[in-house]
Input
Amino acid sequence: MNEKVKAYFKNPRNLESMADATVKGTGGDPGCGDYIELYLKIEHDVILKASAMVAGCPYAIATTSVFTEMIAGKSLDDAMMISGDEVADFLDGLPETKIHCSLMGPEALRNAAHNYIMARICTPSMA
Output
């Protein structure tokens, strides 16, 4: 485990549930052990705050923590462009067997974006 992964594992950021979240999305596979719930506070299609609850290994914790930092303050469209490769690169790479951890954040964001769009269709004043 490299030093950057260790730092984010030992001092994770934004790993908490968010009671006033606009929307939530999930990623990973609870049956396999690595799983996240991503919470977003969104106004005018901008992610004001991102947090997550994560179950999994140190790599899952580190990648989730990094992902919440990477998307906060971005428009939903810009945040959706962040790939698992970018998360892994930010952490100076991950072992091949742990790459799936870097994909959980983008997956959860896609699910959250879907939920956000569906809620807006049902409640147009949500934007």
Q: What stands out?
A: The longest strand covers residues 46-55.
